[in-house]
Design brief:
With about 325 residues, the protein is mostly helical. The protein has 13 helices and no strands. The longest helix is centred in the first third of the chain and has 36 residues.
């Protein structure tokens, strides 16, 4: 497992730098925002760009970019949105809002999704199973922003149970803040619930029809005992790694959902950086989302070996 983990980590680092270089070059190829010709702000920005090697080949620019990060943890300064402020400091300030909204979403969506999947598997080929499976496919097929608009119309406009936008401030775990987050939490939850319900239903259905389950029943175990002691344990070999990956993904957030509900997180910051042509913020956001995706994949792969002894034993041969 140690060798496998080191190999996977090395591959992840290689992929990260490859993707980062490609994104860096594509971003630097974009046209620079037009600045006032006679302005102190413009002169400072131009001097900063010259120091970063904007007139040099892209490989040299990328080298300067990496050197500043590894030696000074300098991701650059904001040129448009937050002029002169450190990009990393801005990003860190926006991160808690994204994490809290996604954490609230995960806390209740994972158990609900798994419970629906278990219920559908136990009621296989009944109207309950058909209903849950159909709803699951419909929910997965519809983008999350569609649910966001429906929730805003129904719960925020018609019923007026929740505000349209997230409350300002940093009291993340207060009741008023939680109430203002509920529409965004619900919008993020539908896809996660449907995904876990489908995965759980598929895995548990396959396990329930396995030969060892028939053996367990012939030894005198009831259906409930066999399901809890044997079926669910084997089923969770696939589900638990997905949960780990989901928790890693809470840092990523949702670009569209954060924009719709006015969440001051990294998703909204990224959208503003794109529309405002603030490329330094955009580069940091791109690297961040790439790292989160690769880290989630790494955690899922490694967790299989710790959860399933057969995988760990197989790696020793």
């Amino acid at each position: 497992m140690v060798k496998y983990t080191l190999q996977r980590t090395l591959y992840m680092i290689m992929v990260f730098f490859t993707i980062t270089f490609m994104c860096f070059v594509l971003i630097r190829m974009l046209p620079l925002p037009v600045l006032p010709p006679e302005d102190v702000h413009t002169k400072i920005v131009m001097m900063r760009r010259e120091a970063l090697g904007y007139n040099e080949p892209y490989v040299v620019q990328f080298g300067i970019f990496l050197k500043n990060i590894f030696t000074k943890w300098d991701w650059g300064l904001s040129e448009i949105l937050y002029y002169g402020q450190d990009v990393w400091s801005i990003f860190v300030q926006k991160l808690p809002a994204t994490m809290v909204v996604n954490l609230y979403s995960i806390i209740w969506t994972i158990p609900v999704g798994i419970a629906l999947g278990i219920f559908a598997a136990l009621k296989k080929n009944t109207w309950v199973d058909y209903t849950i499976s159909t709803l699951t496919m419909v929910v997965i097929s519809v983008p999350s922003f569609v649910y966001a608009f429906l929730i805003q119309y129904l719960f925020c406009y018609k019923l007026q149970w929740f505000p349209f936008l997230m409350k300002g401030g940093t009291d993340w775990f207060s009741w008023p803040m939680f109430i203002s987050m509920v529409p965004a939490i619900l919008s993020l939850s539908f896809g996660t619930i449907a995904g876990f319900a489908r995965t759980t239903r598929a895995e548990l259905t396959e396990v329930l029809t396995s030969e060892f389950m028939l053996l367990a029943r012939t030894k005198g175990l009831t259906k409930t005992q066999a399901t809890v002691r044997h079926a669910l344990r084997n089923c969770f070999v696939v589900i638990v790694p997905a949960i780990f990956g989901q928790f890693i993904g809470i840092l990523g957030g949702s670009l569209i959902i954060e924009g719709i509900f006015g969440i001051p997180g990294v998703g909204g910051l990224t959208l503003k950086a794109i529309t405002g042509l603030d490329y330094n913020i955009f580069i940091l956001s791109t690297c961040f989302y790439t790292a989160i995706g690769l880290a989630a994949s790494l955690v899922v792969d490694i967790s299989y070996g710790f959860i399933d002894p057969r995988i760990r034993m197989g790696s020793k041969k």
